[in-house]
Amino acid sequence: MGNNGLDIGLDEFKRMKQVDRSILIYQNLTHIRKSFKEYRFYKKIVLWWLLILSTFVGLKRFIGL
To answer: Mean pLDDT score of the chain, rounded to an integer?
Structure first.
């Protein structure tokens, strides 16, 4: 089991009790949601950095600043 026990095989998932399956599914959902929020924040930073860098390069090349 890697990834804090959130990644298991199908056979192991089938052998689990219903309560354990529900807990595992809940943990997976919360892990995915947290990762997605972090990814959106990172993406916003990268997009702003690219916008600033492109603006600077464009002003330097075409206006000569």
So the answer is: 82
Alpha-helix runs per DSSP H in the chain: 10-15, 18-58
Domain membership flag for residue 48: yes
5 located within any domain: no
pTM: 0.50
List, in sequence order, every residue forming a beta bridge with 7; answer none if it has no partner. 2
Split into its structural domains, the chain has a count of: 1
Distance, CA of 19 to chain centre: 27
CA distance 47 to 51: 6
Mean pLDDT over 32-40 rounds to 79
